[in-house]
Amino acid sequence: MANTFEKTRKQIAKKRGGNIEALHQNSRNSKRLHKAQVRDDRLEKIERARKKQDRPLLERAVFFQQAVRENQNQPLALDAVHSRINEFVHRFNEEYDEIKKTRRAGRPASMREDLLRMAIEGLEKEQRDGFFMPDLTSEKNVALLDRWEGKSWPYLTNVAWVKVSAAGLVKPSSFPPSQSI
């Protein structure tokens, strides 16, 4: 969290003997405070955008971490990996079908329905072309994934990532991926 404003306010208060309320509107100190507040707001906005962008990859890592833990921290065979990928890709189908069923005939799709449909289509396309995921076939990598706390983004660079195609081809990949997921 950005704290430029607090530092600036503290410096000005120290210089003015603790009386910060008597600043003139166009004074240098007032402009310093305004500039610090704008900077803090900008940094928070950037941080929120980055967290929003990173969320799908973190959710993916958490899902496969749970899959590893369900398998008693043992590596998975390729067919088990494909079934987990299929489970991940189709996790929204129930909600999508429910929303679609409750919609009255002749009505346009709701925003949530459109978002779910696009998410499902995107995941299915990625499953065909090459699904980006942690390598669950390596014992060392499974142990690394199990030790991950679930929130730390930098730790995920230590975990080996692969792209698994629908044909069963496994290609090594790097984290984070070059294109957003």
Automatic annotation (TrEMBL):
Ranges where the record places region Disordered: 1-38
Signal peptide: none
GO terms under cellular component: nucleus
InterPro entries: Tma16, Tma16_sf
Family: Belongs to the TMA16 family.
Protein name per the record: Translation machinery-associated protein 16
Annotated source species: Bombardia bombarda
